[in-house]
Specification:
By secondary structure, the protein is an alpha/beta fold. It is built from six helices and seven strands. A seven-stranded mixed beta sheet has the order 1-7-6-2-5-3-4, with helices on both faces. Helix 1 crosses helix 2, helix 4 packs across helix 5 and helix 5 crosses helix 6.
């Protein structure tokens, strides 16, 4: 049993985590809250908001255990695609009813792994106004608990130039058990409950950032 897909190289995965952990430190002023809430063992479906390409890489490095992300299939080409395979990430085709990657993810979860999903599906405002059903389906199929995490500050606000070390905050919420009844109606209801919990985690982080002066400054700095 393994917490990585077949064909993945554990050593390369761990090296990639170290690289990801420190890659963004020079570019961002990062504060991480609640990382100790992430279960160190057992099946976990991590759900996060999505506003930029930075979140997957940032979370991959910050998580205290190995993680497998569902990555859009378009990324799995050339050297980058090979690298993603070697570190154990799974390709998923957005907009197509292909459960093959989800079935791989279920096997990893049943082995005690952590699988990360962006329920919004595509990059947006990160407020989690909508959510796809994949995360809830994984929970129902594996019995995993859900770990919400909110990320803010990675997206450059409209109209702003490049920023000098913008404030980026990552907040891990309390993990929770999600009951997903059988049938489509049960999946729809569980997806909405998951969406609300993640949206609340994002709202709590937004409130904390406003209180601690971590929101965008009115005057930006050119590089």
């Amino acid at each position: 049993m393994s917490d990585l897909p077949a064909g993945a190289h554990e050593g390369l995965h761990d090296l990639a985590r170290v690289i990801a952990r420190w890659t963004f430190r020079p570019a961002f002023n990062i504060i991480v809250r609640g990382r100790d809430r992430v279960p160190r063992t057992g099946p976990v479906v991590l759900v996060a908001n999505h506003t930029s390409m930075v979140e997957p890489q940032l979370l991959f490095g910050l998580l205290p255990r190995r993680s497998v992300f569902l990555v859009k299939k378009e990324m799995f080409h050339g050297p980058i695609g090979k690298g993603l395979e070697l570190i154990g990430q799974l390709p998923v085709q957005r907009g197509e009813p292909d459960r093959t990657p989800l079935l791989h993810a279920v096997r990893l979860l049943r082995s005690g792994g952590l699988v990360a999903v962006f329920p919004e599906g595509t990059r947006g405002t990160g407020e989690v106004r909508t959510a796809h059903q994949g995360a809830a389906w994984l929970v129902r199929s594996s019995g995993a608990i859900v770990q919400p995490v909110a990320v803010r500050g990675t997206q450059r606000p409209d109209g702003m130039r490049r920023r000098f070390r913008p404030a980026v905050d990552v907040s891990f919420g309390e993990p929770f058990v999600l009951d997903v009844p059988r049938g489509r109606a049960g999946l729809v209801d569980a997806t909405e409950r998951l969406r609300v919990r993640l949206a609340d985690t994002v709202a709590e982080l937004d409130s904390w950032r406003a209180t601690h002066g971590r929101t965008e400054r009115t005057k930006d700095v050119r590089q």
